[in-house]
Design brief:
By secondary structure, the protein is mainly beta. The protein contains no helices and eleven strands. Strands 2, 4, 5, 6, 9, 10 and 11 form a seven-stranded mixed sheet that branches. The model has no long low-confidence stretch (mean pLDDT about 95).
Length: about 120
């Protein structure tokens, strides 16, 4: 079983920056793909960014050039650095991960990001 815990959400003004972190723990051999999703009430959950164990990244068009995903395989952690934040980035951000030989996607509890003046 994999437990994911996010941290770093909060309130930030438009144009500001914020960093999110995700830590994986539990019974597993290794964490494979990791990613960040977000969901605003009334909207579908969307993939923000993902990263493979080897470091290959993928971003939603809406965040390219503003968000940077990274990970530390030795520590089983992942980060999302967000700059030039916009009100439309407001959402609950969720950390996801797969582990070992399973395709099961594990989810964190989510952390709120609010971009508002």
């Amino acid at each position: 079983q994999v437990q994911l815990v996010e941290s770093g959400g909060g309130l930030v003004q438009p144009g500001g920056s914020l960093g999110l972190s995700c830590a994986a723990s539990g019974r597993f051999f290794r964490i494979n793909a990791m990613g960040w999703y977000r969901q605003d009430p009334g909207k579908q959950r969307e993939l923000v960014a993902s990263i493979t164990r080897g470091g290959s990244t993928n971003y939603a068009d809406s965040v390219k050039g503003r968000f940077t995903i990274s990970r530390d395989n030795a520590k089983n952690t992942m980060a999302l650095q967000m700059i030039s934040l916009k009100p439309e980035d407001t959402a609950v951000y969720y950390c996801t991960a797969t582990a070992d030989w399973s395709d099961t996607q594990h989810w964190g509890q989510g952390t709120q990001v609010t971009v508002s003046s």
